[in-house]
Batch of 4 targets.
Target 1
Amino acid sequence: MAGVHDLARNETGIMTAIEVLRQRFGARLETGQALREQHAHTTTWLRNQPPDAVICPTTTEEVQAIMGICAEYRVPVIPFGAGSSLEGHVNAPAGGISLDFKEMNAILAVHAEDMDCVIQPGVTRKALNTHLRATGLFFPVDPGADASLGGMAATGASGTNAVRYGTMKDNILSLKAVLPSGEVVTTAQRARKTSAGYDLTRLMVGSEGTLGVITELTLRLQGIPEAVSAATCSFPDVGAACNAVIATIQYGIPVARIELLDAVQVRAVNAYSKLSLPETPLLLLEFHGSEAGVAEQARTFGEIAAEMGGSGFDFTTKEEDRNRLWQARHDAYWAGLQLRPGARGLSTDVCVPVSRLADCVTAAQERLASMGMLAPIVGHVGDGNFHCLLLVDTADTSEVAQAEAFIGWLNDLAISMDGTCTGEHGIGQGKSSYLERELGPGAMGMMQAIKRAVDPLNILNPGKMGLV
């Protein structure tokens, strides 16, 4: 499979490092086959490449000690959050040590007056928002899965709220990371802005564990809105729905979420979540603000949607109704799998300028139809980002090859539209061959130079992002 190759292993170094680490960490260093496979990539179609051992550090100092030992014996280190990434980020193609951050899950400080907090990387987004509830604040980045915030930072995660609140790179003020040398670097202070030196925070965000191991995060928080309303509207085709999105963004309506489900995905959601939505392309939206504000935003969107051929527009402020709709959206992956029992889901995403969204989604649908492939489409379309879930019998090599061909075609299409081969899944292994096509040799050369300068032994998450 493209991008998933075994790399040369340092067998002697790995064996020696494991023994040294066992002396230091005892039973906390685990080498069971099942556990190691769980810490490689099992959530998608990519081949599982397990590490040789798993350790759960509890402090930055322990991460430093592990990095020091692994650097001495030239052993790869692969950071692991919740394992919910989709492009092979946690695979270990050269073996090595998986650092599982589930024990580094403390919320270290909440500065409600400054609207920020300091956490360890193993804290999940749901746990953080539960902790924050009494403060009237919340952390807005929502990729759907209950991912760890360290993993979300490393992969530059995004999600349903990004159209209003931005992605991880917009919501991290500072972070602490352990470099391959064992040195600890703090990328910034807690100030809301800075002009002091290189922007090391955003260099680390999205670096996919190839430059440092994140051990602490300072996050920007938002106030819980006074009122929230959710809305649904059906459209005759995807093009009309996308044009409604474009008009909504251009009109300046401050939507918090605006999600597209194509007709196939709506059918899957109805069956899985016991809903009765019209089985045509659907926009699912959420508005945040004052009670009068969200009502006005919803009404204005309804007028735009009607002009674009929308029908059945409905909105609600009832929490139980909103939660039911958004839970159905978050369950879209599992719902999609039920359309073809026994198939695996090959999930891929691209992102284009919003003005090209209708063209890109429509072309993707036509291509899927011509190839006879079943693939529901969902998208965070306020950002021009959408996902295809290809339902494939992975035991059939011809189906896998066909799916890979479609993913490659879609990546190239998005890039040709001034877009990106991934809006939020990241590069990892699965899209490593497309990064240079998107950024060009100059940018890749600069990234390679940074990687070699920071990690000259190439022990941090090797084989990812096309970096060597």
Target 2
Amino acid sequence: MNLRPSQHLSENQVNKGLRLVIADGLTSEAMVVFTSGTFLTAMAVNMGATNFQLGLFAALPTFTTVFQLFSIWMVQHFKNRRIITALFNFLARIPILVIGLLPFLFTKGTSIQILLLMLFFQHVFGDIAGASWNSWMKDLIPEQRLGSFFSRRSRMGQILNVTLSLTTALCIDYIKAHYPQQEILTYNILFLIGGTLGLASVGFLLRTPEPQPQKMDDKLFKLFAKPLKNKNFKTLLIFNSFWAFALNLATPFFTVYMLKTIGISLSYIIALGILGQISGILSLKLWGKYSDWFSNKTILRICAPLYIGCILAFSVTNMPQSHLFTLALLMGIHIVSGLSTAGINLALSNIGIKLAPKNEAIVYISTKNMLVAFCSTIAPMIGGLMADYFANNQFTWNMVLKSSDDVNNLTLLNLQGWNYFFIIGGLLAMLSLRFLSRIQEQGEVKKEKVVVHMHKRFRYRLRANLGEDFTDGIYHPRRKVVKMIKKLRKQRAKTKQLA
């Protein structure tokens, strides 16, 4: 196997590489399902983790992004991103396998400390590999296919995530009900399976071709000054950081709010989360195409206001007296937020890759990742500190309806506790859009034109599905056939001219 970068890649090599990148994405996604999120938290709780230790588990992924600096130094000196990515991804899988073997290697009293240490090294090695991988993908994936490729990869990954999460959760519930003494062993087995799948992803990476990277001759700290001197990219950094701070001020508390304030059961919350994921999966293909046809900035200008509307809508979900109406409102919020989040995440990732210069992509993207991670970390911390203050304040706006027989109070607005966070977060997110408008992206199209295009495309698809053509309320079943005939005649005329 030749692991050296290639000066030139043929179209077949690029297409083969893209298929391997998708395979790597699917195996990595399966690994993430088995070794993080709800299953990791449940495992840590069963091992006796304190609240402070659980907080450390949540903070590790953002804390370790600073180690991407080491990745930049390695790419600069060794100029082989495939080996760097594969090597450090391999090293990141070893701690996962060690966690799976915890009951056989360590005593119960020391297991939680070893778990924390292993997760620390997993995230450190993973961040080093991730920075190198971003630079590699910048050169491998054709720019005109960036949106459609990543939307397809993300869509397939999310479908796998939902399927595996549901199946695994049902299996764990069954084991807890019938074999409770085997629950902790089940989590260890999940980590062993996840680590094995992670090693398989390394194999796919080693077979993926790498274009020759361009040289970076400047010193490390001089390189990091360049994204801040690039006016356009600096505007993107400000917008993305501001946006991350605004969202993480409010969104981490959605589950707490639904559990404690509205009083919804955990099973309903999981179902709402899955509904949002399905909405995102169904819309990713559309956003990927529009990202390539128009621009990532245009996608952001459509999706960001939709998501802000969802954040603000959360502040009024405790107002309806009917529990059924509250659930219907939450369902609508999760559908729209899933749809808009899919477009936002795809566009933010792609616009960073697109605006970064090829020879210094790893520096630009790593700078963006570290700033966003910092803002994402401090926002919920500030929100937590402010929680007690808002918990003791309430704002209510009522309308009194008097009649000869009775007096009725109609609640128009009721803000208390977390509701303030949602309004503050939504308003800050709205302010961040001012920086978005200043970003310059090649191929940018006005939002209004894209919305008109989406509306026309929807009407066209509706007509195609009905098998009829209609305008002004009048049906024209034959008009579609006439258009097709005219199109065929034009194509024949062009063929004759060429001949």
Target 3
Amino acid sequence: MRGVHTVAEIRAAEDALMARLPPGALMQRAVAGLVTVCTRRILRSGGYGARVVVLAGAGNNGGDALWAGARLARRGAHADAVLLNPEKAHAEGLTAFRAAGGRVVAVADAGEALAGADLVLDGMLGIGGRGGLRGDAAALAELLAAGRTAGAVVAVDLPSGVDPDTGETPGPHVVADHTVTFGTGKAALAIDPAAAAAGVVHHVDIGLAPYLPEPALTVLDDADVAALLPDPGRESDKYSRGVVGVLAGSAQFPGAAVLAVGGALHGGAGMVRYAGPDAVATEVRQRWPEAIAGPSPDTVGRVQAWTIGSGLGDGRGADVEAALAAGLPVLVDADGLRSLPSRFDGPALLTPHAGELARLLDVERAEVEARRLHHAREAAQRWNAVVLLKGSTTVVAAPDGRVRVNPTGTSALAAAGTGDVLAGLAGSLLAGRLSPLDAGSVAAYAHGLAGRRAAASAGYPSAGDVLAELPAVVRSLRGAVGAG
């Protein structure tokens, strides 16, 4: 699990650590990690003969970049520095840069320097910055965006101009090929739209961990997800493994029911009961003969969790109300989101995409996409439910403020029906007694891995291709925890 911390938490941890270190030692740890990434993973020459341009603002972020430029110059690089505010440039870093043979270039001449660069270090604005870039900094970011450098753009700690705590991009900002970040994760590197500007993220440990609090926002990995997967014991039966009811599909969208039931069958529950029209139920049974089907929630038998809404269409309001009134853990997706209570009293997981969440919150879709973390948290608190906001970086927000960001997202999931698979999978995990936060996190993670596997074999995969990869994904995750 990778923690994501706020600027205030990082600042407090840095102060606590620096009190135990010689002056400047913490910065040199960061610089050493930055240079190592640049020389071993980005510059094929290891730095020798490379043309490096440092974009340095005031403060420690600019200092990191200048010190890194000095070290690269001592390795044989040709280093130029563009100072956004020469009077406030980091004194020690600038002295070291000049002593190593680095050259200071005027902002007006930055375009020429950038044109020949093999590596650009973006140290214009660090985690203390708020708002988009302005003035010369915005102009330099525009030059980079226009392709004025053929070399790699490496952001120091995070791309300048993005909001570190929210993942928002409130104005002009740098779009990096790589970001070398120090100490812990930042929301800007995990949540779009800012994460899209970070490129490949490299984490450098500088010793902050003992001084950081338990994070409210986390990014899970294979081991975390494997540990959360339901693990049936020797005495388990189909009922103890969980029974999930699926209220999905319609005459217009029968495939939604087939896909949701398929996702549920691969989520660990011992039984799936489908509630829907006879014609749709027939299609479900033909594809999944192990599923039990009935026309409505009160006819399918006892369940331990409900998945509601995928492809449901109109005219099923009474069935939705009956399932919601049962007081069981529930996942609400797609059309089911139009029938939400004012607040949930029991475990609930909502799975909207940006357009659906915008409708629920009465805002524009673009606003949700620009402030994904903010709106997911707002909805979680309003409905007292975990909200899984689907998208390029899926955000899973709990009412108590905890958030998990899914790192396995892929454009392969941008196909009709993949959300139905996710809904069935997550609902099955709810029936398997996972909390809504865990069910949503695990489902999103496995779903993303299945999308990646499907893309590797099918190129442009369908929802059926993604569904077909789920067993292999679950098997590999369970194998990983077994090997551990």
Target 4
Amino acid sequence: MSTAKRLPYEGIRVVEFTHMVMGPTCGMVLADLGAEVIKVEPVGHGREGDATRRLLGSGAGFFPLFNRNKKSIALDLQTPEGKEAVLKLIATADVVSENFKPGTMKKLGLDYVALKAKHPRLVYVSHKGFLPGPYDHRTALDEVVQMMGGLAYMTGRPGDPLRAGASVNDIMGGMFGAIGAMAALAQREQTGEGQEVQSALFENNVFLVAQHMLQYAVTGKPAAPMPARISAWAIYDVFQARGGDQIFLAVVSDTQWAIFCEAFGYADLKGDTRLKTNNDRVRAREWLIPLLRERVAQIGVEELAEKFEANGLPFAPITRPEELLDDPHLLATGGLAPITLPDGRASKTVLLPLTLDGQRPGVRHDPPKLGEHGHELLAELGYSDAEIAALTHMETK
């Protein structure tokens, strides 16, 4: 699938040394927006490409999601020949992106200081656990920074910290890396010089909970975990409908309260002076919510959804991720695109949540096979067929 118009980052070449989620997300964003993103994957010494190609369980979706629209070249950077080839490739790049532990790229001679001397226009994006400071020696994971950064505290019940149900910091950290790269490229147009961009998991997590930090600064009261919070709205809960199905229902204004009571025939509640305003209803939650739970439990979830939708009231079914692959809105609006998984099966993938002139940036290339584009890239750099065969050490998988 491709878009008819020229994408904004066409003509920009990105060479990425990334794995897992954070770094690949940065490359995916730039690739979706038109950049030529070349994924340098390790081979030799027992390694066969990005390890996420082989992850099971919760990691099984990492590679096919975050590596679409990219090219793959497999090189052994521990050899002089592999190192020379990657330096030649970097010489053609606008952006280098990496997310290995601190010191790894320096050992390879591929850190920003080493590359800047020869390539002053290069934009270099580093994705780390922490920005430089007292914590930067620590090994970070999404779950680690969620625990130390307040997000797990806010998500779980009191005394039961709980990580968010997605790799929120890895994904957003990669997005901020891409934003930084975009800013650096824009500034390069003005100055002619590149720069180093840094993005980090911990700082990203702190940004996510900043609203709760500022809530404390404004009110002087610590924010309560979300399951224990005092909601600003009286009806803002998950309810159980007839048959046990669950649905989220919200009534967030006095106008909506009147509409809600009218739609469901709750004249007694509409006329109750104790429930006149939203704040009155918040104060009455102790008895109001149990009463509403009893009434809602007598109504089917489809009827509830139909009435809320017909009356412009906020509601949401409790949906599992796999069900979204058949979501009618996503299918109708082009939010899902066909893709071929690394094992050859057809599937659908999720596009960037934005439009450009009414179009979603699409899938131009399936996630690459290991080393799939090595021959064409090395040939472009001037290597002969014999040199390419000796350099790649392997057949394209």
